Amino acid sequence: MKRILLFTVFSLLLCSSCKKEPATSETVENVSSLTETSKENGFAIVIHGGAGTIKKENMTSEQEVAYRTKLQEALDAGYKVLEEGGSSLDAVQKSVNIMEDSPLFNAGKGAVFNSAGKNELDASIMDGKTLNSGAIAGVKQIKNPINAARIVMDSTRHVMMAGKGAEDFAKLNGIEFEDDNYFHTEKRYNQLLKAQEREKVVLDHSALIIDTKELIDDHKYGTVGAVAIDKEGNIAAATSTGGMTNKKYGRVGDSPIIGAGTYANNKTCGVSATGTGEYFIRTLATHEASSLMQYKNLSLKESLDNVMRQIGDLGGSGGLIALDKNGNVAWSFNSAGMYRGYKKSSGENVVKFYEE
Ligand code: ASP
User: Fold this and answer.
1) Average pLDDT over residues 259-288
2) How far is the CA of 303 from the centre of ligand 1 (A)?
3) What is the CATH number of domain 46-354?
4) Can you tell me which atom of ligand 1 is nearest the CA of 318?
């Protein structure tokens, strides 16, 4: 009798566990609704296409349309990666690729010329979850420098590779190369000639001030960058550039330097910089922004403004874009304008050029 009772209880238990079948899928639904909940924190992407003398009075409506269209394309592409559940790393790489392929920006195809008439490219990418990073500096003919930076991050024990070694490594890893003609855009070449001419004029009068703020503002910006947070809450940042017009051959700017041009940390924020690189290196601008949040409890916007004040005080100019671990987006710049935009899962979509 006892046995029968035990058997009945056991069967009942078994049956009730059988009935859990639909409950399991409910659990799965719950899991996905949990993901939905974390989605409520949102996914987002913010990008820049460089800062400088970007003023309404200097832009034709065709130029405005061209920049707006390309920035929106870059935002949409990165956003799509995030929307489909892709990583923030893939999203920032995708957005940067689109700007690198456009002659409008100083990265990849539209890269500026150095003083030797060559395009020397720098780029870096960082994963805020692991703090893994990859960077390449002073490379030539790489179509999408950010892809080479990603390969350095994913397939080596190193963070940064430079020059010929980086190029050889990129080639071995199937990174696309283009010849010099691909990078030769009339606009950038004329900027080089103008900068060299002006530098000569300035030098003729005074050897002291080659890098006047005006010269910098006029001719030396256009770097691209992206920062994203994905559905998992992981932050990534990426920056790619041709550097500064008429830079001395071999000069490396802030863009490939982790903590200067690019930084991402899930604990705080992701940041990408553009501007007179030397000042962003000296202030370790993007890491400084993260530290101000982490150790001084400043908001994202306060941190960026603080860093840009430091840069301004030293005589540098440019800007920062960023987003924090809660998906808040912010930017700060002390130049006349900055090509920039963001797109959030909340539905916000913004593209701007000029001062607020
Ligand atoms: N920061 C870049 C560099 O100094 C230039 C730029 O942002 O346009 O190389």
Assistant:
1) 97
2) 20
3) 3.60.20.30
4) 7
| Alpha carbons 161 and 245: distance in angstroms, whole number | 22
Residues with a CB atom less than 6 Å from ligand 1: 50, 106, 221-223, 241, 243-244, 253-255, 274-275, 277, 318
Would you state the pLDDT for residue 54? 85
pTM for the structure as a whole: 0.84
**Beta bridge mates, 224:** 240
**Can 69 be counted among the known catalytic residues?**
no
Residue ranges per domain, the chain? 46-354
Q: Yes or no: say if 91 and 44 are a contact pair by the CB < 8 Å rule.
A: no
Distance 240 CA to ligand 1 centre (A): 9
CA 274 to ligand 1: nearest atom: 7
Mean pLDDT of the chain: 86
The conformation of residue 152, written as its DSSP 8-state character, comes to H
Question: Which amino acid makes up residue 230?
Answer: D
Kindly tell me if the per-residue pLDDT of 136 is higher than 60: yes
107 CA → ligand 1 middle, Å: 10
13-31 pLDDT tens trace: 443 433 333 333 332 222 2
Residue tagged active-site, from 27, 156, 223, 274: 223
Q: How many CB atoms lie within 10 A of CB 311?
A: 26
Pairwise CA distance, residues 202 & 205, whole Å: 5
For the segment 297-302, the average pLDDT, to the nearest whole number, is 98
How many CA atoms are closer than 13 Å to the CA of 16, on its beta-carbon side? 5
Residue type, 100: E
pLDDT at position 35 over 70: no
